[in-house]
């Protein structure tokens, strides 16, 4: 074909970030309110990228996009496509560096567009493997949770080296995501926690295990429609994340404000030290009110979304 489209939504980590890198479970949610569209198009010449951050040949991308180059090259090889006569346009509504998985979403959308361009069906394993190439460049040692969630329609229970499990919430949960405005750096945040583990193994391991326990209880809360319990667990996880040094003043300000305004629980989401917070509202109406209040309070962007019991 001459032109082919690939899309991908973004993701949120509900609970378990950082601990998941060290073998504990985490729960992540597909976040369809923002996403990426990639269009692969036949254009004679070398392979080129057209995105907000860069326009030009794929060999000359800035360092921040070098993972994407490797991923595109690996995908072209996988599909037996020549490394030429191709323009890949990338349109993203995901703010980068905010814990919403923008790099993994870009990779998945681009890979899907190339499979569509080659008129090849794909296995989910192919997508995960190829996207992982880009994620390793972007984040060093990612747990793999981002790419999995971006290719899922349901919440995910994820633990390294364990089979992935899907979670079916048994009630409706209304969440708010608010952007603190500051960009985070996943690689740096992950490294800072790893350093802590090395410097005080017993104390920090205990914290990571504690996050693991909270995450187990959060799964039960989702599966028994226990909103108040889930809220409390989000707050407990935030306390541990603060102790690990990955929450900052901007995140804390939004978290405390959301709680003060009646959120059942609130915490950072993703790598932290910049990025977004996730708060659990009391119900749909409260979620809308909280959204407005957070906007007025200075959040850069606010989204409200619901996780609903599947009634099919
Ligand atoms: O990409 P982010 O900001 O959502 O962070 C990913 C979550 C971490 O647990 C901090 C890292 C990982 O690879 O799981």
Automatic annotation (TrEMBL):
Belongs to the GHMP kinase family. Mevalonate kinase subfamily. It is an enzyme of class 2 (transferase). Pfam families: GHMP_kinases_C (PF08544), GHMP_kinases_N (PF00288). Gene3D superfamilies: 3.30.230.10, GHMP kinase, C-terminal domain (3.30.70.890). Residues 71-146 form the GHMP kinase N-terminal domain. One of its GO terms (molecular function) is mevalonate kinase activity. PROSITE patterns: GHMP_KINASES_ATP. This is mevalonate kinase. It is found in: Cytoplasm. Its EC number is 2.7.1.36.
């Amino acid at each position: 074909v001459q032109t082919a489209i690939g899309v991908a939504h973004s993701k949120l980590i509900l609970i378990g970030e950082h601990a998941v890198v060290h073998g504990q479970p985490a729960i992540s949610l597909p976040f369809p309110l923002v996403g990426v569209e990639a269009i692969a198009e036949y254009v004679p010449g070398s392979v080129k990228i057209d995105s907000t951050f860069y326009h030009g040949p794929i060999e000359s991308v800035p360092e921040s996009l070098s993972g994407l180059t490797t991923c595109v090259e690996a995908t072209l090889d996988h599909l037996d496509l020549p490394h030429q006569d191709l323009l890949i346009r990338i349109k993203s509504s995901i703010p980068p560096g905010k814990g919403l998985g923008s790099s993994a979403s870009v990779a998945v959308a681009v890979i899907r567009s190339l499979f569509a361009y080659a008129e090849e069906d794909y296995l989910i394993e192919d997508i995960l493997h190829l996207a992982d190439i880009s994620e390793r460049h972007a984040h060093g040692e990612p747990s793999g949770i981002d790419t999995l969630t971006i290719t899922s329609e349901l919440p995910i229970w994820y633990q390294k080296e364990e089979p992935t499990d899907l979670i079916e919430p048994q009630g409706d949960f209304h969440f708010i995501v608010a952007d603190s405005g500051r960009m985070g750096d996943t690689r740096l945040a992950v490294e800072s926690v790893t350093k802590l583990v090395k410097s005080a193994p017993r104390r920090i391991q205990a914290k990571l295990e504690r996050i693991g326990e909270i995450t187990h209880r959060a799964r039960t809360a989702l599966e028994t429609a226990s909103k108040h319990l889930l809220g409390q667990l989000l707050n407990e996880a935030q306390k541990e994340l603060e102790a690990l040094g990955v929450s900052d003043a901007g995140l804390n300000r939004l978290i405390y404000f959301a709680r003060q305004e009646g959120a059942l629980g609130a915490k950072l989401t993703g790598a932290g030290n910049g990025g977004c917070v996730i708060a659990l509202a009391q119900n749909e109406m409260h979620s809308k009110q909280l959204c407005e209040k957070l906007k007025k309070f200075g959040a850069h962007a606010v989204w409200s979304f619901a996780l609903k019991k599947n009634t099919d």
